[in-house]
Amino acid sequence: MDRVAGREGGRVGGRVGVGARPGAGVRERAVDGDRVGIFGGSGGGLMTVNALGNSDRFRAGAAFYGVYDYESFVDDTDDVGWQLLKRELGDFVADLDAYRDASPIRTVPDIDDPLMVLHGEEDARVPISQSEQLVAELEKHDARHELRRYEGEPHGFGELDHVLDAYTRVADLFAKYLRRLPDDGSSRSYEPPE
What's the number of CA atoms in the CB half-sphere (13 Å) around residue 181? Predict the structure, then answer.
């Protein structure tokens, strides 16, 4: 199995498989192992970055509004985010190393595949500073990436134009890097009506 963040014994950072049986789809030829992408939002964004940094299974990823640096997140999140963090990682002062070790940003030097980062500018649960820190680290390591900011969006996208734009960009990312067009070749970035 690949090392990706997951719960093991009440801690984050255990070894978990991707899918019910790691590699099952690839062995059975249901999945072309050279064309697998990953995306997710919030905790799924965190998992996307961890998976890209700890595994060679994926060729591209898109991370939506995730927590990437737990240490800085402590000061930035709302009460709900703080309670979730404390439940997952324990007391910040007593378990600072756990916070650092579990932070997906630490895996950036091992990310070889393109990563799209998408985040709402009004996110109080996971502030956009998390994505900005991730992007700064990606730039430091010359990793292929793109940051897309969504004005007025909180944690999760609600405006239809933003939802269509975000998922069209993800489809195009996968079409480009997984070498398969998701439709008849007419895939393009969503252009909101004037």
Answer: 6
